[in-house]
Amino acid sequence: MPSPLPASVLDLAPVVPVVVVDDASDAVPLARALVSGGLPAIEVTLRTPAALRAIRAIADAVPDALVGAGTVITPEQVTDSVTAGARFLVSPGWTDVLLDAMRASGVPFLPGVSTTSEVVALLERGVREMKFFPAEAAGGTAYLKSLAGPLPQARFCPTGGIGPATAPDYLALPNVGCVGGSWMLPADAVAARDWERVAALARAAAGLRAQV
Questions:
Q1: 131 in active site
Q2: How much is the pTM?
Q3: What is the mean pLDDT of residues 4-17?
Q4: What is the DSSP track for 1-16?
């Protein structure tokens, strides 16, 4: 049975792994390693031809995972991702057309923002949970801290350039629910299929909330 839809993607774990899958056969063991380490929400980015097959494999074989699709930029990708089994959607940015498609999908979604005006526009449309991207390049914790005063109703998942050293600074902010990152999936570990190392790095990431 697929995992139930969450009330909020932001509250599942302190870190959402951002996964680029080149070989769909790696998807299931990779997802199991992340889940065993305490990171159940897994964002598979639509950057490779294997992405949709990876989403389907995880949805079918790892019931404790909540698999989502990232880098969603077209309505067609929304449909394809949900059909493959994605339980949430993440975009690097948004347009009215894309937002309408994500809202109609029936699954939770995090549209990407990097400016105050984009945040206000989403709040105007009833969207309160967003991806802040590219986090470090767009102003990092200082920028998000400055948004908390005038726009306290907006909550974010910052992604982009965040690692284990900086993640706790983001998680300490009142308007940050979780962060996205890929540091628990180093390229050499994935290439070697060293899933025990991935699980260990996931456990360390899952424990970051306790450090705040």
A1: yes
A2: 0.96
A3: 88
A4: -PPPPPS-GGGS-SEE
